[in-house]
Amino acid sequence: MAVQFRPLSFVLGAEVTGVDIRKPIATDVLGEINQGFLQYSVLLFRGTPVTRAEHIAFSRHFGEVDNNDRAQRIRHPEYHEIQIITSKIKTTTDPNAFAGQVWHSDQSYSTQPAKATLLHALDVPPIGGDTMFANMYLAFEALSEPMQKIVEGLHAVHFGGKARLDNSTPERAAETARQNLPSAHPLVQVHPETGRKSLFIGGKVKQIVGMHPDESATLVQFLCNHAAQPRFLYRHQWQKEDVLLWDNRCTNHIGLGDYDRAYPRNIDRTTVKGLPAGYAYSGPVHYQGPRL
Ligand code: SIN
């Protein structure tokens, strides 16, 4: 049976049928999946009870899978490529309670932002806990031409994802400090495969390189609000055993915390590494808030 794509919304997302991602995948079939990935940006493989090994094996078709060295606290003890997203450890006083609950593109705070992310839903609440996606190509294209010209010349500073402090030697302390610098990236990205331009902005962006704090805050706020308009969005309502794959190079996402904590929300995540990009930002910092 040929691979088929059923669009999930007008602007992005498609459900894929006609392939079993738990089995070895022929090159031509993989090519079709990749075409769908580039066209729809978010792909759903509904009701696919993958094992952790199968989840990792499927993820590897899209590139090198991160082994979560920077996220050891939440990686699976045996399958290091799997990050555990769970409602269990989260309370409202936990600083990580709302991790993922801000619009973002994965690992944008680093100098190697993620290419793709794959989630596998193990337990989902009966109501709420959806994940929303924004089409950042459309967000860029919908800006006026003068505004497109302005943002194309700017770099944004992304905060978050601190590596653990290791001050055991002066060299290690210096390396940790370097790794924990925020990263700066062009506000407009050119997708390496489709060639289309997209906005690279989100809740982890706290300033624009070279701007005064008030200019920066106003522009960041405008662009974040702009990109989160309903006309650019797909909202994924999880079903148990869904596998969702998305392209971080042209989408933003947000995990919603609007569900009853009496119900577990357990999701396995793998992250496919992207290309090295941007630079560690060591200029003046306006943002003094908590880790994002
Ligand atoms: C993520 O940001 O990778 C997770 C989103 C979610 O939990 O829905």
Could you explain the architecture of this structure?
Helix content is 21%, strand content 25%. With 292 residues, the protein is an alpha+beta fold. The protein has a single domain, classed as 4-Layer Sandwich (Double-stranded beta-helix). Strand 1 and strand 2 form a beta hairpin. The longest helix is centred in the last third of the chain and has 15 residues. It starts with a strand and ends in a 12-residue tail after the last strand. The site of succinic acid (SIN) has 9 residues, from strand 14 and strand 15.
Total E-strand runs: 16
Radius of gyration: 19 Å
Overall average residue pLDDT: 92
- The CATH homologous superfamily name equals Clavaminate synthase-like
Q: What is the percentage of strand-forming residues?
A: 25-35%
- The gross shape turns out to be globular
Q: Give the H and E element order.
A: EEHEHEEEHHEHEEEEHEEEEE
State the CATH class.
Alpha Beta
Number of DSSP helical runs: 6
State the domain count: 1
**Per CATH, which architecture?**
4-Layer Sandwich
Question: Which molecules are bound besides the chains?
Answer: succinic acid
In order across it, which strands form the biggest sheet? 1-2-3-13-5-15-4
Low-pLDDT residue intervals, each spanning 5 or more residues: none
